[in-house]
UniProtKB/TrEMBL annotation:
Its main location: membrane. The chain crosses the membrane at residues 12-37, 43-64, 76-95, 101-124, 136-162, 168-189, 225-243, 249-267, 279-296, 302-322, 343-366, 372-392. Keywords: Membrane, Transmembrane, Transmembrane helix. PANTHER family: INTEGRAL MEMBRANE TRANSPORT PROTEIN-RELATED, MAJOR FACILITATOR SUPERFAMILY (MFS) PROFILE DOMAIN-CONTAINING PROTEIN. This is MFS transporter. It comes from the Bacteria. It is found in: Cell membrane. The lineage of its organism: Bacteria, Bacillati, Bacillota, Bacilli, Bacillales. InterPro entries: MFS (IPR011701), MFS_trans_sf (IPR036259), Sugar_transport-like (IPR052528). The keyword Membrane applies. Gene3D superfamilies: MFS general substrate transporter like domains.
Amino acid sequence: MKTSAHFDRQSQLLLAVNGLIVLAGALSGTFLNVYLWKSKQDYAMIGWFTVAQQVAVGLTFWIGGKWVKEYNKMNALRAGIVLSGLFYLVVLWIGSDVVRWIWPLGLLLGVSLGIFWLAFNVVYFEVTDRSNRDLFNGWVGLLGSITGIIGPWFSGLLITWLKGDRGYRVIFTISLVIYAIAVMLSFFLKKRKSGGSYRWSEPITQLRAKGSPWRLMAPGLAAQGIREGVFAFLIGLLVFVATNKEAKLGQFTLITSAISLLTYWLAGKWYKPGYRSAGMLLGALLLWIVIFPLLWSTGYSALLVLGIGSAIFMPLYILPMISSGFDLMGTSDEMVEKRVELVVLRELSLMAGRLLGAFAFIVVVMMSKTPLTITIVMLILGASPILSWIFVRKLLRDGSSA
């Protein structure tokens, strides 16, 4: 991969803030669903927690878009970090009664994630361009993999060593400290210009406009969200259910993140815009294929095959989706001026898919919780990246997102 010298100071600072946020999430977020599961063994409950998050994320993006566009987007970014810290503070305060507060906690976490990532994505668009966007995304993935190696492994060992709730409370406290550091670092990011008046109905306008590329990108993003809405919480939870050991989940995440470290490094170095269409299709197909071993076993080994396969093939699929979506925001001066609204449209599309996936999962597990049933649901929802490619292939192949 090219060195970070190809980025200016602001890009490097933005990457550092991102790295800290991802580290805090890797330390605590990896075990958050396990913490809920240990209080109440209910897949549907975890699903509803995810639904609450996604509803809050989508609404926060849409409503917060006015703040980010017309006022100080850097304050919005800091507010997201502060609210993330507040979430873990509340979890620490509630303790073992956390399952009684699934919806309020899910909404709080969703608001914190929504306002942070809205501001982050807008600033990310402003500090990158088509020539270095894949590189920046590669570094984001690289940092995510490094923190994914260190964070869950350390958390798993600490939780196992301290035993009981004490380990979780220590990990959640460490995350609070990291969020505080991220807030302080964010003050070195320059205040950025506001972008004029916020158009509340712009997402609908783009979807209704004949010939708008977002009529292809939006359903592609929704299809991406279908898989994310379930796999993001289910894989780690299945590893814990199969082993009943936090240390084993930490080991699983360490292995898969170490492989992601290599694959994102390679993707950042070799993945060019001209490879996006073929690479995305190949990645989508392989991400689906690695689920099939779960038909024969849902033990740790089969889950590790899924985790390793996903770590290898995810960059092929996800980097074109991220980069091409942001490229659409730079196709003209008019689109650049609407970048906040387009970021909102992007997140609302992802939210729609995530909610669809989560609702489908909840409906199924309320009827049957057998390993085979869950595997079949994963196979169906896990095919959604192929649907993403079907929608966006024209944009990728024709260079419409250039």
